[in-house]
Design a protein that fits this description.
This protein is of the alpha+beta class. Helix content is 30%, strand content 19%. It is elongated.
Length: 184
């Protein structure tokens, strides 16, 4: 029965795609497909590269955060040592993103301390994959110490490296705006 429904939805999508292609000049610039829920979707087809990159939604972040991400990645292990906040603190300090060693004990408290003491800002994005490189992602609940990690070019890092963000509830994504003298 499920195979029959899948076949029927595929045939419907094929007929619909053919009808759209026959009736619309837009079909040359749109790719039509059926998503995993059986809904017909489309995406723009890019036929040539214009040389323009998408606009950076976070254009003025402190470059020291990128350095902190690199330092954290160099020092990270393959598996957790259950010391995520300590490793992130040390990377931020070594990069000069903070001027003293953060004092909070629990990872879930990192965001408040970074904002109140070190001039970080909570970013509007809630998607860890959209976080800029060098931003600090804080996770936690009322119980337990939480988790903190830095966004890198290759994924996320704290005391260990991972290509995917933590599964814990995200409290916030924090970054520091560059001072006018470091923007160049």
């Amino acid at each position: 029965m499920i195979r029959f429904l899948l076949l029927l939805s595929f045939i419907f999508a094929l007929v619909l795609t053919s009808a759209l292609a026959a009736n619309s000049s837009e079909s040359e610039t749109r790719f039509v497909y059926v998503d995993q829920h059986g809904k017909v979707q489309s995406a723009e087809v890019i036929s040539h590269y214009t040389g323009k990159l998408p606009k950076n939604p976070f254009p003025h972040l402190d470059p020291k955060l990128t350095r902190a991400a690199t330092i954290a990645e160099e020092r990270a292990h393959a598996h957790s040592r259950r010391a995520c906040w300590r490793y992130v603190k040390e990377a931020l300090l070594a990069a000069g993103a903070v001027d003293s060693y953060p004092q909070t004990a629990l990872a879930r408290q990192a965001g408040d301390e970074l904002v109140n003491r070190y001039g970080f800002t909570r970013l509007a994005t809630r998607d860890p994959y959209q976080a800029p490189v060098g931003s600090v992602l804080v996770y936690g609940t009322r119980r337990g110490p939480g988790h903190v990690e830095i966004r890198t070019n290759n994924g996320f890092v704290s005391d260990f490296r991972t290509p995917t963000p933590s599964h814990r509830p995200l409290i916030g994504i924090y970054a520091k705006v560059a001072s006018s003298s470091s923007r160049g």
